[in-house]
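Researcher: Following up on the earlier apo prediction. This time include the ligand. It's magnesium ion, with the SMILES given after the sequence.
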Amino acid sequence: MSSNPLQHGISAPILATYGLSVHYGNRPALEDISLSIEAGDVVGVLGPNGSGKSTLLQVFAGMIPPSHGSCSFNGREITAPTPGITYVPQRAGASWSFPISVIDAVLLGLGRSTPRYRGFGGNERRRAFEALRHVEMEQHANVQIGALSGGQQQRVFLARALLSGGSVLLLDEPFTGVDIPTQTLFVSLFDDLKARGMAIVYATHDLDQARSASDKAVLLNRRLIAIGEPDEVFQSSNLQEAFAGNVIVIDDSATTHPSTATVNRR
Ligand SMILES: Nc1ncnc2c1ncn2[C@@H]1O[C@H](COP(=O)(O)OP(=O)(O)O)[C@@H](O)[C@H]1O
Ligand SMILES: [Mg+2]
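Model: Understood. Below is the ligand-bound prediction.
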């Protein structure tokens, strides 16, 4: 217990991994990752397909155990899904095979803090509407969620995450397959949440998005290639290492700040 930095008055990073490895069967998906994330950080996790981005988010979400090393939230080991850490899966993974209205889907964000299901009260509904207003979806409150576009569904997911009120928000590819207005809205929401001291960690395969929407970047390819300021992390040598020839860096002139880069997508 004496190793808990909180007891010494030193603030622990909100999220940290130390020597983290994850295996699926015998195959490593992440190897020896050590990093830390502070409250108020907006962190873009970038890497090619299969580089372990989703795996890293799911370790933070307490859904996948490390095979080696450790992973902590406010200095405490993460061993299971934790209140305070909200995880929004990649949209492609969600299926809406049962009918549910938008407002009810948002109210599910209260699930963990509601002792048992007995309908939601007026105050809870007001907070859910407020969360929907944040993502400009309140006019769709009573629509069936299956009838919404991908971008609108993603907004609803985010409203649900807002209502759950954690201090860490994990988003798997929130910008994939959503329209530009939704992307813009998400970026301004990130700023809002950051100002409230929340840490946001999101996976993306879009380099420009990661550069413009994050104040810290993590570049992965099973191993940690770089972490830090986006402009430093996205130096062409790091990108070449991560994408192994599948990256074209345009206008990487004398500086170490490529102004434009394109990542080939499969
Ligand atoms: N449930 C799983 N079972 C077995 N292998 C998996 C599973 N999930 C991911 N993998 C493998 O782990 C590696 C990393 O996957 P993932 O974390 O999804 O990467 P990314 O999100 O960067 O595309 C890939 O090789 C992938 O095939
Ligand atoms: Mg993924």
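Model: Residues 32 and 104 are 41 Å apart (CA to CA).
Researcher: Noted. I'll compare it with the apo version next.
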